[in-house]
Amino acid sequence: MKLIIATIKPFKLEEVREALTEIGVRGMMVTEIKGFGSQSGHTEIYRGAEYAVNFVPKVKLEIAVSASMVDQVIEAITKTARTGKIGDGKIFVLDIQQAVRVRTGETNEDAL
């Protein structure tokens, strides 16, 4: 089992969710976050005053899948989240040691 953590631009969330649903992903956790990477923020002008925006709004997806689905999930996210501009996001893949469905007590892949 693997945990895929992806950060994407907020306006791409619905498109990514649809692509993941099509390939059989049955659930994910979504968190609104702020962060910076290569773009390291930017400056904006508000009411004539310039100020720095150091953290950019992003969406973090956490998706637990069987190891056999990892490549498919990564491909779906990269294909739908890519704009070709800086700040498109990142994807990390981690091992899951154990999973338990609280309601039924199912474990590991049955719990996904």
Automatic annotation (TrEMBL):
Top-rank taxon, per record: Bacteria
Entry keywords, A to Z: Nitrogen fixation, Nucleotide-binding, Phosphoprotein, Transcription, Transcription regulation
Keyword Repressor: no
GO biological process annotation, one example: regulation of nitrogen utilization
GO cellular component entries: cytosol
PANTHER family associated with the record: NITROGEN REGULATORY PROTEIN P-II, NITROGEN REGULATORY PROTEIN P-II HOMOLOG
Cited function: P-II indirectly controls the transcription of the glutamine synthetase gene (glnA). P-II prevents NR-II-catalyzed conversion of NR-I to NR-I-phosphate, the transcriptional activator of glnA. When P-II is uridylylated to P-II-UMP, these events are reversed. When the ratio of Gln to 2-ketoglutarate decreases, P-II is uridylylated to P-II-UMP, which causes the deadenylation of glutamine synthetase, so activating the enzyme.
Complex and partners: Homotrimer.
Family: Belongs to the P(II) protein family.
Protein's UniProt name: Nitrogen regulatory protein P-II
